[in-house]
Amino acid sequence: MRRKRLDYEYEESFLNPTEIASGLKGKKVVFHIKTGLGVDDAQICEAFNVALVALEAGADVRMVFSGSAALDFNGKKSRLEKTAVPERLRKAISYQSYIPLDQIPHNYKDYLEMIHERGAGMFVNTGFNIVLGESDKLLRANPGFEYVTSITYAEVSKIISEGEAYISY
């Protein structure tokens, strides 16, 4: 266990994720993120944080973006890229995950990429592209997010059914 001072007002003791969540090692955990940054940034933020710690504990993580969260990938500069990870949150993530602060990204696009690089599978439901009249984007990689696989509703259901744990945000 280690103690870290996050700022002048807050001090906490943190155990390594492998000590706290040892039961996750090797389990398939599906994070279904449906609420986008434009609706409620706390939901997607929490999903990223818990997914990262689950990975650090040894889980086999899959992240599926649907609904308004799928919209966060669109645009010349996506909401994920535009939205900063607050500095105090970066410190909390670092201390709780045992990852050095200089490796914790400054925006959610880079944070998602870091989670992917640590082993998480990334998927985006293409259904919202149909709603927006952008069906030509179906099953194509989103620019800047080539590591995120576009999938259909049926594939969303399949990924969810294969999970040993399901967490929805």
Q: What share of residues is helical?
A: 25-40%
Number of helical elements = 8
Task: Indicate the CATH topology.
Answer: Hypothetical Protein Ychn, Chain: A
CATH H-level superfamily: DsrEFH-like
Beta-strand percentage range: 15-25%
In total, the number of strands is 7
What is the end-to-end distance?
29 Å
Query: What is the CATH architecture assignment?
Result: 3-Layer(aba) Sandwich
Mean of pLDDT: 85
Please give the order of strands in the largest beta sheet. Answer: 6-5-4-3-7
When the domains are counted, the total is 1
Write the layout of secondary structure elements.
Elements: E1 2-5, E2 11-14, H1 17-20, E3 28-33, H2 41-56, E4 60-65, H3 67-70, H4 79-82, H5 87-97, H6 108-117, E5 121-125, H7 127-131, E6 149-151, H8 153-162, E7 165-168
Give a verbal description of the structure.
The chain is of the alpha/beta class and 169 residues long. The chain has a single domain, classed as DsrEFH-like (Hypothetical Protein Ychn, Chain: A). The chain has helices at residues 17-20, 41-56, 67-70, 79-82, 87-97, 108-117, 127-131, 153-162; strands at residues 2-5, 11-14, 28-33, 60-65, 121-125, 149-151, 165-168. The protein has a 5-stranded parallel β-sheet with strand order 6-5-4-3-7. A two-stranded antiparallel sheet has the order 1-2. Helix 2 (41-56) runs parallel beside helix 6 (108-117). The longest helix has 16 residues, at 41-56.
